[in-house]
Amino acid sequence: MKIEVRNQAKIANKYIRFAKWKVRSICRKYNASMYSEIFIRKESTKPMVFSATVKLGVPGPDLIVTSQADNLNELWAEISDKLKSKLRKYTSRKKM
Fold first, then answer.
1. If you count DSSP H runs as helices and E runs as strands, how many of each does the chain have, helices first?
2. Res. 94: pLDDT tops 90
3. Separation between Cα atoms, residue 16 and residue 63, nearest integer Å
4. How high is the pLDDT of residue 44?
5. Is 42 in contact with 9 (CB distance < 8 Å)?
6. Burial classification of residue 12, based on how many CB atoms lie within 10 Å of its CB (0-12 exposed, 13-18 middle, 19 or more buried)
């Protein structure tokens, strides 16, 4: 699976590696994704607000998840929860 990251917020590599790891592990669990793109932006500076969009390429329409948070750990937790629920819906529709 190919993962492309567009880091416009200039965050540290450890957060990028963590995001890739999260997306890769979720996609392996549901065995659905062909590629993924992660877009990271800084929405404001005071207070620091980050925005992330994850686009998963699956057969059919792509799955897109967006979230905002002031803490990067909270951001990835929220993104992973949303990805899991979208992939659960996708795999249940696929089995029908």
1. 2, 4
2. no
3. 20
4. 84
5. yes
6. exposed
Token pair of 1, please?
Answer: 């699976």
pLDDT of residue 96: 61
Residues 40, 77: Cα–Cα separation, whole Å: 15
CA distances to 64, 82, 93, 94 from 40, rounded to whole Å, are: 13, 16, 29, 30
What pLDDT digit, counting tens, does each position of 50-59 carry?
999 999 988 8
Q: In this predicted model, what pLDDT tens digit does every residue of 17-69 receive, in sequence order?
A: 998 998 888 888 888 778 899 999 998 888 889 999 999 988 888 899 999 99
CA angle 38, 61, 77 (to 5 degrees): 35
Could you tell me if 19 and 38 are in contact, meaning their C-beta atoms sit under 8 angstroms apart? yes
Q: Which CATH class is domain 2-95?
A: alpha beta
E strand residue ranges, 8-95: 35-44, 49-57, 63-69
